[in-house]
TrEMBL record:
<keyword id="KW-0539">Nucleus</keyword>
<dbReference type="InterPro" id="IPR032319">
    <property type="entry name" value="CLP1_P"/>
</dbReference>
<dbReference type="GO" id="GO:0005849">
    <property type="term" value="C:mRNA cleavage factor complex"/>
</dbReference>
<keyword id="KW-0067">ATP-binding</keyword>
<dbReference type="InterPro" id="IPR032324">
    <property type="entry name" value="Clp1_N"/>
</dbReference>
<dbReference type="InterPro" id="IPR027417">
    <property type="entry name" value="P-loop_NTPase"/>
</dbReference>
<dbReference type="GO" id="GO:0051731">
    <property type="term" value="F:polynucleotide 5'-hydroxyl-kinase activity"/>
</dbReference>
<feature type="region of interest" description="Disordered">
    <location>
        <begin position="444"/>
        <end position="551"/>
    </location>
</feature>
<dbReference type="GO" id="GO:0006388">
    <property type="term" value="P:tRNA splicing, via endonucleolytic cleavage and ligation"/>
</dbReference>
<keyword id="KW-0547">Nucleotide-binding</keyword>
<dbReference type="Pfam" id="PF06807">
    <property type="entry name" value="Clp1"/>
</dbReference>
<comment type="function">
    <text>Required for endonucleolytic cleavage during polyadenylation-dependent pre-mRNA 3'-end formation.</text>
</comment>
<dbReference type="Pfam" id="PF16575">
    <property type="entry name" value="CLP1_P"/>
</dbReference>
<comment type="subunit">
    <text>Component of a pre-mRNA cleavage factor complex. Interacts directly with PCF11.</text>
</comment>
<feature type="domain" description="AAA+ ATPase">
    <location>
        <begin position="125"/>
        <end position="322"/>
    </location>
</feature>
<feature type="region of interest" description="Disordered">
    <location>
        <begin position="107"/>
        <end position="129"/>
    </location>
</feature>
<dbReference type="GO" id="GO:0005524">
    <property type="term" value="F:ATP binding"/>
</dbReference>
Length: 602
C-alpha cells in the first residue's frame, strides 16, 4: 500500500481481493480510482464512489480488472490476495442463472411447477440451493454473493432468501429464522447487514424498506436436539410461505431459493431421536423436504459431501472451495456480531463518523438511522410465554400409575414473580406474536395442544400407548436438478484446488428517541381489551388459571410481528420497561421469550 498525506492507495491485480478486518475503533471508506467497478460480496461499487465500512467488519473487495483502490484510513489488518474463490462462485452462479432463464421460459409457456413434464422440457422452477459447511467456512458470504450476483444480472429476479442460521449476522435478529425477497443487491457496510429489511420501523424511503422480510422465532442461537420439534415446525412454516409466494408470483418461482444454514447442520446426529437412532442429518433432511431443495453446496467438507450424496440421491450435492479469506470467528467476535445485530434492528445503520462523512466525492446511498421507542407495560398486560419448557408439576404429583406426555412445543407462561424469573427476563429479547380470534382455548378445550396425561396401562408387551397432539401436516415434494450445476461444481473444485450468509409491518413515524414513557393503561392494553372483545361470547369459561396458557400451541411457531427487549423491570410497580422499534401500541400483547439477551453497550 502506498501512503501519501491525502490518500492511501492499494494496487490490486486483476481477479484479486483486498481483505480487511476492522477493529472496534476502525471506520473506513474505500473507492476505486480506476474506470472499472469493484465488488463487495458481489455488490457493485461504481468507480470513484466512496463505500463506507463500519467497525468490526471483516470482508473483502474484489477487483476483476487491475485496480487502484483508495482507502480513507488503512486498517491495521489488511492484505491483498489473488487466491480468490470468486471464479468458482461465478461458475455456480452461471449454472443457476441458466436454470432461472429456462424456468422463466417454461413458466411463460404456461407450464406449472408441479405439472409432469417430459424429460426434454426445461426446469419449471428456479434452483433451490442450500449452503452447508462448518463454522466460519463462509456459508453466509457464499449465499450473499450468489444472491447479489442473481440480483445484479438485470433480469429482475426476486429470489427467496431463507436464513436458517439463528446466529447469522445476515439474519433479522439473533434467535430468528427469516425469509426475504430482495430485489436489489444487499450491501455490506457493517456487521449486521441482513439479507432482508432489518427492522419494523424501517422508514419507507430507505433501501431496506422494499425488501419484504418475514421472521420466525426459534429463540436460541443454534438448533439443538431439545428444540427439534419447534425447529421443524418453523421450517415447515417458512416453506409454506415460500410456496404461497411462488404460487402467486411466477418471477419468484423462476428466481429460485437460497438457503443459509447453521454450522450445526454438519453434525450428523443433530435431530436424531431415540426412536430412530440411525437417522443422520435429520434437520438437513427436513429442510430439504420442506423447502424443496434441489441442490446442496457443501463448503470444503469432503466427508459431509459424500454423506449427503448418499443420503439424498435426488438432490445434487456439490462441493465448493472454502475461501482463504474467511475469518475464524471466536466467541468474543460472535458476541460482538450478535449485539450489533440486535442494535441494528432497533437503531438501524450506524451514523457515519465525521472523518468519513467529510470525504470529498460521491458516497453510495445508505440507509438512515432508526429511532426506537421505550415505554413501560404492566406484567399483567404483556403475556410472556416460553415454548417447550418443562416446568410443569412434578410427575410425583400425578395420580398413581399415570405419567405425563408433554408436547415438545407446549407453551408455558412466564410468571415474573416466580423464582429467578426476573433475572431471566431482564434484557431478554421477545418475539411479539399475533393473536387471532380462534387462538384462545376455551376452558373445556384446555389441555389440547399443551400436555396430555395418560394412564400407564400395559399394552401388549408392557408398552405404553400414548396419544400425542401433533402439529400441522407437512407437505413433501421433489425438486428438479440441473446437470449444469454439476459442471459448475467440477469447475469450482478444479479452481479451488488450484488456488486454495415479518413481512414485519412497519409503523414508520418515529419519535421520543431513547425516552422511556410510562403510558397509563399501558400501550397495547386497548388492543388486549379488543382481543378479549373479539373472542367475546360472554363465556364465563374464559376465566383463566394464572398458570395455564390460554392459547393454542400454534402461536409459538407462527411468524412474528416484530421483536422487543425488556430493558428494565420494576418489581414494586410490576412493570416492564420495553424497547420497541416503533412508537405506539404493541401490535400484540403476547410475546415469546427464548434465551437471547441484549444489553446496549453503546
Ligand atoms: N473472502 C473473504 N475475505 C475476507 N473476509 C471474509 C471472506 N469471506 C468471508 N469472510 C469473513 O469471514 C467470516 C466468516 O464468514 P461467514 O460468516 O460467511 O461464515 P459462516 O460459515 O456463515 O459462519 P457461521 O459459522 O457463523 O455460520 C465473516 O466475518 C466474513 O465476513
Amino acid at each position: 500500500m502506498s501512503e501519501s498525506p491525502e490518500q492511501h492507495v492499494v494496487d490490486l491485480e486483476a481477479e484479486s481481493e483486498w481483505r480487511f478486518e476492522l477493529e472496534a475503533d476502525e471506520n473506513i471508506a474505500v473507492r476505486t480510482l480506476s474506470p472499472d467497478s469493484v465488488y463487495i460480496n458481489s455488490e457493485e461499487i461504481p468507480p470513484t464512489t466512496w463505500y463506507p465500512l463500519h467497525r468490526n467488519l471483516k470482508a473483502s473487495i474484489y477487483a476483476a480488472q487491475p485496480t487502484k483502490l483508495q482507502v480513507s484510513t488503512p486498517p491495521a489488518s489488511n492484505y491483498s490476495s489473488s487466491s480468490t474463490s470468486q471464479s468458482s462462485l461465478v461458475a455456480l452462479h452461471l449454472a443457476l442463472e441458466r436454470i432461472r432463464i429456462l424456468a422463466r421460459r417454461q413458466l411463460s409457456n404456461g407450464h406449472a411447477s408441479s405439472s409432469h413434464q417430459s424429460p426434454n422440457d426445461g426446469p419449471s422452477r428456479g434452483p433451490a440451493i442450500m449452503i452447508l459447511g462448518p463454522p466460519s467456512s463462509g456459508k453466509t458470504t457464499v449465499v450473499k454473493n450468489l444472491v447479489n450476483m442473481a440480483l445484479g444480472t438485470g433480469m429482475s429476479w426476486t429470489p427467496g432468501v431463507i436464513s436458517l442460521d439463528p446466529s447469522s449476522p445476515a439474519n433479522l435478529i439473533p434467535g430468528s429464522l427469516s425469509l426475504s425477497t430482495p430485489s436489489h443487491p444487499i450491501p455490506t457496510h457493517h456487521l449486521a447487514h441482513p439479507l432482508g429489511s432489518p427492522p419494523t420501523s424501517v422508514p419507507a424511503n430507505t433501501l431496506g424498506a422494499d425488501v419484504p422480510t418475514l421472521g420466525w422465532w426459534y429463540g436460541h442461537p443454534e438448533p439443538s436436539n431439545k428444540g427439534v420439534d419447534l425447529w421443524k415446525k418453523l421450517v415447515a412454516g417458512i416453506g409454506e410461505r415460500w410456496k404461497e409466494r411462488c404460487a402467486k408470483d411466477p418471477t419468484a418461482l423462476a428466481s429460485g431459493l437460497f438457503v443459509d444454514t447453521p454450522s450445526a447442520f454438519t453434525n450428523a446426529l443433530l435431530g436424531t431421536r431415540k426412536d430412530n437412532p440411525k437417522a443422520k442429518y435429520s434437520l438437513v433432511a427436513d429442510a430439504v423436504e420442506q423447502l424443496e431443495i434441489d441442490t446442496i453446496a457443501v463448503i470444503g467438507h469432503e466427508k459431509l459431501t459424500i454423506d449427503l450424496t448418499r443420503l439424498f440421491p435426488n438432490v445434487r450435492v456439490i462441493r465448493l472451495p472454502r475461501s482463504s479469506g474467511t475469518v475464524d470467528l471466536d466467541d468474543a467476535n460472535r458476541q460482538i456480531v450478535a449485539a450489533a445485530q440486535v442494535r441494528s434492528y432497533f437503531y438501524g445503520e450506524p451514523s457515519l463518523p465525521k472523518e468519513i462523512e467529510n470525504l470529498s466525492g460521491r458516497m453510495v446511498a445508505r440507509e438512515g438511522n432508526l429511532i426506537p421507542y421505550s415505554f413501560q407495560i404492566g406484567w399483567e398486560t404483556l403475556t410472556i410465554l416460553r415454548v417447550g419448557e418443562e416446568n410443569a408439576a412434578p410427575s410425583t404429583a400425578l395420580p398413581l400409575g399415570s405419567s405425563r406426555i408433554l408436547s415438545p412445543t407446549r407453551l408455558t407462561r412466564v410468571d415474573p414473580a416466580g423464582p429467578a424469573q426476573i433475572t431471566r427476563l431482564l434484557n431478554c429479547v421477545l418475539a411479539v406474536v399475533a393473536i387471532r380470534p380462534g387462538d384462545r382455548i376455551k376452558k373445556k378445550d384446555k389441555g389440547l395442544g399443551t400436555a396430555t396425561m395418560v394412564k400407564d396401562e400395559p399394552e401388549g408387551a408392557g408398552q405404553v400407548k400414548v396419544e400425542k397432539v401433533e402439529g400441522p401436516s407437512e407437505e413433501t415434494a421433489e425438486g428438479a436438478v440441473e446437470a449444469e450445476i454439476s459442471e459448475a461444481a467440477d469447475k469450482a473444485q478444479d479452481e479451488g484446488a488450484a488456488k486454495e450468509h415479518t413481512e414485519i409491518k412497519s409503523e414508520t413515524d418515529v419519535q421520543d428517541q431513547g425516552q422511556t414513557k410510562d403510558i397509563s393503561g399501558d400501550p397495547g392494553a386497548a388492543l388486549a381489551e379488543k382481543e378479549h372483545e373479539g373472542e367475546g361470547d360472554g363465556d364465563e369459561d374464559d376465566e383463566e388459571d394464572e398458570d395455564e396458557v390460554p392459547y393454542l400451541e400454534e402461536i409459538g411457531y407462527r411468524e412474528t410481528l416484530g421483536f422487543v427487549v425488556i430493558t428494565a423491570i420494576d418489581t414494586l410497580r410490576k412493570k416492564y420497561t420495553v424497547l420497541s422499534p416503533s412508537p405506539g401500541k404493541l401490535p400484540s400483547t403476547v410475546a415469546i421469550a427464548g434465551s437471547i439477551e441484549w444489553v446496549d453497550s453503546e
